[in-house]
Each structure stands twice: as C-alpha cells, then as structure tokens.
Amino acid sequence: MSPGTELDQFTTLSEVLTGEKKVDRTLAGQYLDRLKAQYPTQMQALLNTFGGFVADKYPVFEVKRRIVDDKTLGPVAQQVIAIWYTSEFVGADGKTPSAGTQAQFYRGLLWSVIKAHPPTHSTLKYGYWAKPPKK
What we know:
About 55% of the residues lie in helices and about 0% in strands. The protein is mainly α.
C-alpha cells in the first residue's frame, strides 16, 4: 500500500483505528476537514507519521506503537476514533466543537456496535421496542 493522498492516508488510518474494514470516503473527507480545523498541526503530524509506515508489513502494530502510544499523537488519534463513532470529538481547547451534521450522527459507527438506531431515526413499526433486538 502506498502512502497516497492525505485523504487516502486518513481513510486507511481511520480503518485501522476503528477496526472497520471500509469507511466511507466522503464522510472521511468531512471528518478530516473538521479535525484539521481544530488540530491543524497535530493532524498533519499524525498523517505524516502514518504516511511514513503505512506501507510496512505490520501497519496495525505500527499504529499502536508510533501513534496510539505516543503522548502527542495518541490524544489526536482518540479524537479520530470519537468522530467516527459519534460524529463528535473534543477540540484542542477541551470543548466540543460544533456537532456534526444529522447525517453524520446517523452514520456513526456506534449504532452498529450497540445494534440500535440513532434516536429519531427508526424505520421500524411503532412499538418495536417492546421486543428484544434480533441477534
């Protein structure tokens, strides 16, 4: 795998950090823009670091060693994970920046993990909550 564009790197890094086999590229672009607005220097360092070893034989191991365990890059990697699961993250100032769009919220990875739909976004019949979810 070659380093590719910044979006390619962010998409691949997001897949490693979230454990998802394929993340949506359009959503990745939106999330990358939002994260870069809050963490311009840190996101560039994160992508530069990842780009330096993305083609290695064991990129998942290297992400843990060089990014997640790093005191500077680790906190930014946590925000990448947060945005994918909830469409929100904590900004560099310690506050939550403006929330993502409704579409981003609905597409959060959290909903598939907990096997639920986002609040206000159900396609099931009224009263579905009275029965346990299918496994």
